[in-house]
Design a protein that fits this description.
Elements: E1 2-6, E2 22-27, E3 30-35, E4 38-39, H1 53-70, E5 78-85, H2 91-101, E6 109-114, E7 125-134
Parallel strand pairs: 5-6
Antiparallel strand pairs: 1-2, 2-3, 3-7, 4-7, 5-7
């Protein structure tokens, strides 16, 4: 087994390179991908639509899609979603966006918790993903 840390070029680098976007553990048959928590920021690290759960959810899933793709995975490969929200009252808006990215039944395993705040002012949710990228048959 080999473990690596990566900041793929398909997404903006994390703030000041303080962490890796993804930890990858290569296994027989594929790789386990553990994504760092993602917040709704633009390529310059500015929060998009401060306070808007729908816009931030869309941006976060765009970032996650880029990270997954860089490692040969898609949303269909997601095993677990962990969401931190500053208000559970925002669940309907977040849920509507999330269902578009995970339409399958059942959806991935999930944990959602309310937190008092996130590290960037205006950010209303942070999402962590665990996925399994299968080796291609090619």
């Amino acid at each position: 087994m080999d473990m690596s840390l990566d900041n793929p070029a398909s997404v903006a680098a994390p703030f000041g390179d303080r962490f890796a976007h993804v930890a990858r553990l290569d296994l027989d048959g594929g790789a386990l991908l553990v994504l760092a928590g993602q917040v709704g920021v633009d390529d310059n690290g500015n929060v998009v639509a401060p306070g808007d759960v729908t816009a931030q959810s869309e941006r976060i899933f765009e970032i996650i899609q880029g990270i997954l793709a860089a490692h040969g995975a898609t949303f269909a490969d997601v095993m677990h979603i962990r969401t931190f929200m500053t208000s559970l009252d925002d669940l309907p808006g977040y849920g509507a966006v999330r269902r578009r990215y995970f339409p399958q039944t059942p959806p991935p395993a999930s944990t959602t918790v309310e937190v008092s705040r996130l590290f960037l002012p205006g950010a209303v949710l942070e999402i962590e993903i665990t996925a399994f990228a299968r080796k291609s048959d090619a």
